């Protein structure tokens, strides 16, 4: 993959590197030969980051993006040329429980990072990863485009809308004239091995399967643009490379699967049960929790037409790869080996 070779020897800062997506991204950048610094909270237990022993192959810094002075010292020392901002409080239901902390992390954490980069003046390309949930979601059956209004409903979604807007303000006010390329990437729902978070569909399926219980779905009819974690990560890498070469590509980019792969939660859970086997059952339950959108679709035609990015694994293949990873983990297999094998399989298809 030509995009990976671009990062060889480059100084890269990755916030949120010890999280689920951050761990896959760390592994990709390590394989690419980047000079990688990560900045994140301590990983949870279990965590993909620890399972892959990634701290031995990068400069892993424990820190909170809300801590401006510490973040500034790390950036001043690392002097990154390329920055990926993944650090966030990423769970919708958790954001109802801790709204203030969610806004502090997702909004002021972003502002702190951008302000450090503004004063340091070292970065050539910055990608802030937000979410498909930034849009004013009227739950209509059409994909939202980058120019549609932003206004997430719940504290998580709204805080990421604010993060997105703050990024574009900093770009317009400071980075554009300095020649620093800055974009936001609004990705759809991500699945893949190594996600152990609560209140996410496939980690919940895995936990039920390991316990020999049925999977109980809160919202089986909710439609989301599901995609394997390697899909958006490949897009983030491509955006960072392309805009480093042409800062005029700065802006907002939707990153989602083909429209046919925007499916219900029930479909995703059913596919997981199929590939897990062992008679795993999926049943519908009731949910007394706070509001979550029932329908969300993305239009990703811009990144396809302008950057040439395309998804590789359809929803069935994405769930199959995820179930196989979790099955290997549950059986005590070497998850680093299966992680690297899935990366190799994905990249081999991406090259063709």
Report the span from N to C terminus. 9 Å
Instruction: Please tell me what the overall shape is.
Output: globular
Structural class, by secondary structure, is alpha/beta
Query: What percent of residues adopt helix (DSSP H or I)?
Result: 40-55%
Order of strands, widest sheet: 3-2-1-4-5-6-11
What percentage of amino acids are in beta strands? Answer: 5-15%
Note poorly predicted spans: none
SSE order: HEHEHEHEHHEHEEHEEEHEEHEHHH
Task: Determine the number of helices (DSSP H or I, runs of at least 4 residues).
Answer: 13
- From the alpha carbons, calculate the radius of gyration and give it in angstroms: 19 Å
* Residue-averaged pLDDT: 94
- Total strands: the figure is 13
User: Main beta sheet, described?
Assistant: 7 strands, parallel
Primary descriptors:
alpha/beta; 352 residues; 13 helices; two-stranded parallel sheet; seven-stranded parallel beta sheet; 13 strands; globular
